[in-house]
Amino acid sequence: MSALNAPLRAAIVAALLLLTAAATARASARAPMYFDAGRAAVDDSTREATLERLDSLGVRALRLSLPWAAVAPAATSATKPAFDAADPNAYDWGGYGRLVDAAHARGWRILVTFSAPVPKWATAAHRDQVTRPSALEFGAFATAAGRRLGAAVDAWGMWNEPNHPRFLLPQYVHGKPTAPSLYRALHLAGVRGLEAAGQAKDTMLGGETAPGGDRKRSVPPLQFLRGVLTPAHPPSARLRIDGWAHHPYANRRGPFYVPPDKDNVTVGVMRRLESALTKVGRPATKVWVTEFGVQSTPDTTLGVPLAQQAEYRSISERILRADPRVAAMSQYLLNDDAALSGFQSGLVTAAGRAKPSLDEFRLPLTVRRTGSTALLWGLVRPASMAGATHVEVLVRDKSSAHSTAVTTRPTDGVGVWTARLPWRSGRTWRVRWTAPGGATYVGPPVRVYG
User: Fold this and answer.
1) What is the DSSP letter of 244?
2) Which residues of the chain have pLDDT under 70?
3) Which of 257, 255, 252 is nearest to 297 (CA)?
């Protein structure tokens, strides 16, 4: 494999300063890694195998996107049926409820994010399932969800990607952002509904914003944030937001891509989001990355080669874990969507073939060059649950047919380790780890960046 491309190397330079300064701090090392496995976890036929696979990867936290319309009665009808909307027994929770129950039985932390589509009868004009949802009806639904799922759930997101037209409309009216005010009303109603269900001690997340907006059909995330939280709107003072959630997907240029619109936020420019929170008077608000992944082939627009997906995912996790303001992360997905119009950010192809990212997720590794030295950072995912362990570092040079072990490094109590080794052009690195039960795992080969 060749070195990373020149534009990416150039973009890395500034970000390296951040990573170097935080290399020993590991302020977010204990931040939980949630996992959103999508339909594979919700469907009854694949749920148990999916949870078993996640468990084997060291996952102990689940993120679930809960579409209101998927569980509500007569969701496609313009006429609301007669029922108590705050009564959980009036809904068909189906695989969503069974997934929460199964994850709870394993002792996992659970984050539920409410999402569109919504019942047609719960919208202002009753014409579609995304335009001007009723805050009053949503509050009642949140109460029902809290009563059904609350014993297992400890964190809630009020709306998935409310700055994207797929999930909330209108985004703009006469050129002015409308989505922030619509979302603010939904957020307030959702929190109150959950508190009414007895979930006041849970974490209530704001945002859940998509990474970008074009200022025509979708609102950039920081423009959206200011619209929700600016002091110019009196209701913002009453908004309970225990953390601001964001989905900092990047494009195929990689984790250090810098969006030209400064109101858009991808993984390499998270400081934009943190600065925006500080400027609106919330300097202590933590950031939750509740959805993230790296698109791979066969996506021809955003996807990168499979080996590069693994490298980019590790670098992204390294960036997030070096950021003391990041409170949690979430990988999306486990299995690629079958349709190319969906997501190919999984660790497994739609056909069931493991990508290099599957082994990489267990053993994230980054290698950065500084002069004649290679600085390695890694994480042993299961060890983050079991305590300190050790890893073997393997290298392979251009002239070698096989990898060779060059050092053994201890991890700290959450599985993080570092090393300084000689750099050599064309060399690749990988990690070998033997679990307490005797199973041995080897991560994919990693190239140097920087």
Assistant:
1) E
2) 1-29, 231-237, 383-386
3) 252
CATH code that applies to domain 31-292? 3.20.20.80
pLDDT digits (tens, 9 = 90+) for 420-433: 999 999 999 999 99
Which 8-state DSSP code applies to residue 241? -
* DSSP-assigned states of every residue in 309-342: HHHHHHHHHHHHHT-TTEEEEEEE-SB--SSTTS
Note the pLDDT of residue 307. Answer: 97
Contact 261, 254 (CB under 8 A): no
For residue 450, what pLDDT is reported?
Answer: 74
Q: What's the pTM?
A: 0.93
Cα–Cα dist 232/399, whole Å = 64
Burial pattern 90-113, b for ≥16 Cβ within 10 A else e, equals bbebebbbebbebbbeeebbbbbb
* Per-residue pLDDT tens digits for 166-186: 999 999 999 999 999 999 999
Q: Is the distance from CB of 3 to CB of 444 less than 8 angstroms?
A: no
Please list the residues that pair with 34 across neighbouring strands.
330
Does an H or E element contain 56, and which?
helix 47-56
From residue 225, alpha-carbon distances to 59, 264, 277, 349, 410 in Å are: 30, 11, 8, 35, 41
- Written as one letter, the residue type at 48 is E
Tell me how far apart the alpha carbons of residues 227 and 181 are, in angstroms, rounded to a whole number: 7
Domain segments of the chain: what residues? 31-292
CA neighbours closer than 13 Å in the CB half-sphere of residue 430 = 19
Q: Are 290 and 252 in contact (CB under 8 A)?
A: no
Q: How far apart are the first and last CA of the chain?
A: 15
- In angstroms, what CA-CA distances link 62 with 109, 380, 383? 6, 19, 18
Residue 258: closest CA among 293, 215, 212, 291: 212
